[in-house]
Amino acid sequence: MELTKETCRQTAEELLHFLEKSPSSFHAIANITNMLEAAGFEEIREEENWKLLPGGSYYVTRNQSSVIAFKVPGADFTGFQIMASHSDSPSFKIKENPEMEAEGHFIKLNVEKYGGMIMSPWFDRPLSIAGRLVVEEDGRLVSKLVNIDRDLVMIPNLAIHMNRQVNDGYAYNAQKDMLPVFGSLEAKGTFMSLIAEAAGVKEEDILGHDLFLYNRQPGTIWGADETFLSCGRLDDLQCAFSSMEGFLQG
User: Fold this and answer.
1) Which own/partner pairs from 192-201 qualify as long-range (CB within 8 Å, at least 24 positions apart)?
2) Fewest CB atoms within 10 Å of the CB: 45, 201, 210, 247?
3) Is 146 exposed, middle or buried (0-12, 13-18, 19+ CB in 10 A)?
4) What is the pLDDT of residue 1?
5) How confident is the model over 69-92, as a mean pLDDT?
6) How high is the mean pLDDT of the chain?
7) Which residues, listed in sequence order, are joined to residue 19 by a DSSP beta bridge?
8) pLDDT tens string 18-51
């Protein structure tokens, strides 16, 4: 592919689309496997015997959060190439039983830091929640992807007169300053039912979850000559995307 401004723009837009459709690592892996299958790759499973054919293209997933794809040479070979990227991004993970009544007026969600992050950009932005659920289905444990595809929560900054040190290198406390507001007191007890509805399951069938906050602001290409790109989850889905593109085109 010739490297022109048009092809660079097209690749950047494809990256932004991939990021938008990958609000969690589990969604990212699902998107990557869809790309692999569209390119003719066959899924194989760890628990089964593999029958690999010369010239074949295959992929295997683990835990819905990682994927290995490879091509079998059609003839003898003297070397191989490997590239790897991680599929998760720094975020805030939703704790079990997360609802917390705050100041007698509203409901916050209890969260914990996940990964190395800069916390300040998470303030005052539309956020939502995505990840996976483990549910009971016909006596089996089944994993379901879930994404609340609307502006759902926000981590609001305090007004300047309530935090005069905010511009002086303030040390944020993740367990105090970074709890997202979920709703008024009327929202109490509705979090898991909202999650269940979005996943299309019954609340009582949910046995566990891996849920994360994600930034709802759309990515953008910007600059006088449109040189720059900004979006949430660039760490590290930009590398996962470029690894995938290089692998398929290679």
Assistant:
1) 194/148, 195/129, 195/133, 195/146, 195/148, 196/133, 198/146, 198/147, 198/148, 198/149, 199/133, 199/135, 199/144, 199/145, 199/146, 200/144, 201/133, 201/135, 201/137, 201/144
2) 45
3) buried
4) 58
5) 89
6) 93
7) none
8) 999 999 999 999 999 999 999 999 999 999 999 9
In single-letter form, the type of residue at position 222 comes to W
